[in-house]
Amino acid sequence: MTLTDYLPVYRLRLRTERLELRMPDLDDLVALADQAAAGVHGPDFMPFLTPWTECEPLERGRRTVTHQMSVIAGITPESWMLPLVVVHEGQVIGIQEVGAKEIKATREANTGSWLALAHHGKGFGTEMRAAVLEFVFTGLGADFALSASFEGNRASEGVSRKLGYKADGIDHHVLQGVRRQDNRWRLTRADWEAHRKHEVAIEGLDAEVLASLGLGDAEE
After folding, report:
1. What is the assigned CATH class of domain 7-219?
2. Are 164 and 194 contacting, i.e. CB atoms less than 8 angstroms apart?
3. Directed axis angle between helix 57-73 and helix 26-38, to 10°?
4. Rg (CA), the chain
5. By CB atoms within 10 Å of each CB, which of 3, 96, 149, 165 scores lowest?
């Protein structure tokens, strides 16, 4: 037996022009932790609802490893999040998450991501989100993809707009004692098709993987 027999989602690969997205092994988690330790965002803007980056580099890396291991351990057909590492030229440069609850009924999925600071501004954010959107719409047959970004996160908002998302309301959160506006974004299948520019190859998405994510023959 191999890991993919016990966790079929490890068969999954998403490939774009420059990137590969995959479930992380232990070496990938170490590489991801190194990138987190090196820095994820500037000091003047906190993009995360949970300010996990506000600590020393070693602790930031440790938090990355333990959090992603807990996310992997929590995958069930009813509720799952796939923490896909983003690999460019053999190097892990960030993470692209995609998740859903009761996707068989809701037909919608959520995404979130971060890139190491050294890899900002190179179009990777758009390309990696495009990869999971292909997975969500073509691979899983979803109708909607959802995202959110704090007001002022122009990079994330720019990716959403570029890929065809439309504003879907706001939420308020208290972060570090301050009220922050969280802008919700929704992408329909029609808008995704109209803005689809990246070619994405989906590998390893077989019946066992679909079943592990709450989808099977009955959904067709």
Report:
1. alpha beta
2. yes
3. 140
4. 17
5. 3
Smallest CA-to-CA distance from 160 within 98, 109, 94, 112 is with: 112
CA distances from 213 to 67, 82, 102, 188 (A): 20, 10, 9, 21
Among 24, 26, 25, smallest CA distance to 84 is for 24
pLDDT per residue as tens digits for the range 74-106: 999 999 999 999 999 999 999 999 999 999 999
Which position has the token pair 């690999």? 87
Which pLDDT tens digit goes with each residue over 150-179?
A: 998 999 999 999 999 999 999 999 988 899
Q: What is the per-residue burial (b if ≥16 Cβ within 10 Å, else e) of 197-208?
A: ebebebebbeee
pTM of the model: 0.94
